[in-house]
Structure prediction request, 476 residues.
Amino acid sequence: MTSIYVQILLIILFWNADCQIIPRIEECGLSCSQGIHCKSKPSGGIFNSFCHDVPASLSSMVLKSMKISTVMKCVQGSPCSLHLNIKGTLSLDENVRGLEICSFSLDTQQSQCTSVRFTRKKSKMLNGKKVQVQFNCIEVNVAQHIYVTMKTVPHYCEVKLSQQYYVEDCRNSDVGKYIPACSAGKLDYNLDRARKIVTVNVSNFPRDQDYYVRLCHKWFTCEDVGAFAVIKGKESFKSVSLKYSQLLPCLCIEGWLAFPDARRIQLCPFENDTQVLWDNIVYNPSTQSLAWEPACPVLVMVNLCRFTKSSDHCEDIENSFKNSPEKIKYSHVDTHPRLCMKFTTKRGSRIKCPFAHGGFPAWKMRTAAVAEQIQVFFTSQIKAQFSVLVCNKTQMASCESLGMHHSVSVGDSVSIPMSQEMCGSTICIQGWRTDVDYSVPVQICDTYCGFHGQSHSDGKPAKAMAHRMKSVQSLH
Prediction:
C-alpha cells in the first residue's frame, strides 16, 4: 500500500515539474494546418475595428476555439525572450479572408496586432473544413497581464474570441533561470556609522531596466523602514545612499528590478549588531508595568534579577522567566535601581537596569535608634505597602532572621524594641514593597546599642535615609 502512495506522489511531483517547463523555439512564425498557405503582417487594428453584419450564410461559430500559452525564444549568443503562443481554430468560409490576432497589455495599455491571410483559391476548395492557425511572434514581458482577441477579416459583429492571460513570473523555474529581467542583480554596500548611511552598489542587472533598492526589517516578510530608492537603468551611476536609524541584526538591504513580481535579492550584513536589541525597555508608572519588545526576531530567555553591588552579580528573581518572540511584560514592578532585566541568548547574557539612573516614582526607608527602640518609617511618592524584617548579619552576603516581621504603610512607622541579644551584633533592617509582584529589599545595617535615647551631635537621628530615587513619569 505504501509503494502505491509513493508512486502517486512521484507522479504528482513529476507532473508539477512538467508544468514549470516552457517550450523553447529558435524562431517565431506562423503556421496553418490543412495545407493552407497563410502569411502574416502587422496590423494597427483600426481598419478592422468596425464590424459588419454577419452574412446569412456565415455561421456565428466560424471561430471554434483559442488557446494561449507561453514560449521562450532562445537563440545562441542572445538572451532568451518570452512570446505568446496563440492557437486558433476556425471553419473556412468564402466570407472570411483571414484572421486578426491582437494582444492588449493591461499593465502598459499597449497593443500589438497581426493580420493572418489565407490563399483564397485553396481556402474556397476546403470550404467548411477546420483549419488551425498558430502564431507565436508577439513578444511579452515577465508577469504581464494580457487580453487577447481573435477576429475574422473582415470583422463580423459578434464573431470574436477573447481571453485574458497571465504571463509567468520569475517564480517559474525556466523564466527565473533564462530571462534577463529576472536577474536580481548583485548588491554590495559601504557603511558610514557616524552619519548612519548605507551606500548600496548594484551590479549584474539589465542596463535598460530600472532597479529598486530599500532597507527593511526582516520578520516573516521584509518590512519597510523608509522609502525605496530608484536606480535608473540608463544612468551609469549604479549606487544609492540610504539612511537608517538603528543597526539591527534584522536590518537588510533588498533590491529588485522595477517590474511586477520581480525576484528580490536580500543582503543582511548586520546579524552581529545585537546590542541595541536590549534597549527597548519601557516602564509605565500608572500601571507599574515593565515591558520589553524586540525590534527584531530573536531567540531569547528574559528574566528579572536583583543586582548586588558587592559581588557584581545579578541574582535571578524566581517566577520571572519568560521566553517569547514577541512583547514581554511584567506587571506590578518596583522601581528599584538594582532591579534589572536579564537577556540570555546562545551568545551569553546581557543585563539592563532601567531604574539605575534614578528619575522614577519610588520610595525611601529610614531608621532611627530612639529610647531603646529602632524606629523604621517609609516615604513614597505613590501609595505603597511595605514589610520590615529584622536580621542578624552573620556573613558578608547573608542575614539571619531574628523572627520579627512587621507590615508598614506609607506615612506610618514601626517601632522595633532592642533586646539584649541584639547588642554587640550587627543588626540589619530589611524593607521591601509587598504591593508589587517584583521588588528588591533595602537593607540598613548598624550596631544600634549605645544610641539609647541619644542623637547625633548635629541633632539628627542616627542612620538617616539609605535609599532614594527621584520621580519621573515614564521611561523612554
Remarks:
- The first helix runs from residue 2 to 19.
